[in-house]
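Quick start: read one record
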Amino acid sequence: MRYLAIAPILLLTSALAGCASFSPDSGMGVVSDVTEKAIGKDVAFVRTQDEAATVDAAVKRLLARNLTADAAVQLALLNNKGLQAAYNELALAETDLVADSLPPNPTFSASRITGGGASEVERQVVGDILALATLPARSEIARERFRQAQLKAALATLRLAAEVRRSHVAAVAANETVALLTDAKATAESTAQLAKKLGETGGMNKLDQAREQVFYAEITADLASARQNAASSRERLARLLGLWDGDLGFRIPSKLPPLPKRPLDQPSIEVAAVGHRVDLQIARMEIVALAKALDLTKATRFVTLLDVAGIDRRTRDPEGPPFKERGFDVQFQIPIFDGGEVRVRQAAETYRQAMNRLTEKAINVRSEARDAYRVYRSAYDIASHYQREVLPLRQIITEEMQLRFSSMQVDVFALLTEARQRLGSLRAAIEARRNFWLAQSDLQTAINGGGASAAPSTPSAIASTAPAAGDH
């Protein structure tokens, strides 16, 4: 069919249709770059059997050795199915990009009317001119949305990495506490048995016997609680690692790593956070997308429908020769009641709202970074104090008490009292080191993003502010 009236529409449609295509990696290049720069880890989007086999081999290699915090993070980034679902969201966002970058398909209709020996055949091809005219603007908005989706996938990756690191620290600290309490229980049990024998011979009164027995009973209860906490911590870590029941034989260290020789120096922590936070970058992109949507809404505020149809009509009349008619039909709305003021006002308020939320987020990011560094330095100082001062002094006290006990200068009760105090110091030292490594993870999160409160809060209002293809 050759319709001169709609030939430009068809040509424009064919030209624009060749511009949209899917990327080979579904936008994962940005996710990989952000993850590599922020935490130095690899990511993988598993979509084929070959990719799944490669990931499985890497997971098996990681599980074959003791999982450090870094190894646990890498394992989770490869094996966590929730993260893979986030990458599926990115792939779906790319389909939206391609869909919004394509011009609307023309509509073909045909009708045939007969009666009294006469017949009329009419064919139409209808094209949405407004959708074609606004296609470049809508495509640019769709590209901004896709860039946001890429950073959201990167943010989900950083969030998982932070959760795994914290869970790993908690699990290792729980194991170390269990080992400490196990040794303490053995000592308390020996002491309780000694107290019982002394009581039977009259060498210890009932009150002192009860004190030793209750110490053993409390240590036993503490150990049971610590073992349950260690098991729950291990299960939480296993969930984040994406491991099935058969894979729960993974190994983690029995002790937390020692403190670094010196703490990190972050004189420009606020600048680093504002420049690197992924959630802040997403909020900035939201502003750009909403600004473009506002411009598009203003440009199309009066006209929301503009269809052009090419018409070819053939009429057969028994009283005369058949004849053809060609022409076109134009449809558009008359802005009598709605001049677009509502849509423009909605778009403008949405833009202002996003600006206020971006400003709020920037303020919060700077504050979170300052607070995270203060907590980090405080945790380092406390853990270092236990390591340099408290534990060495406790060791000296223990050795001196044992010497005095051997020379019968102190009795067994003084030795047991010191053992209780030493146990308290050792548990506090483990907690201090755990808090330090958690604070270091939180500091990294405050700079790069991925914390629990880092989810973008800016609204998505393009659908309500910009006319889509075929929006009548």
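Residues 1-7, 453-472 have pLDDT under 50 and may be disordered.
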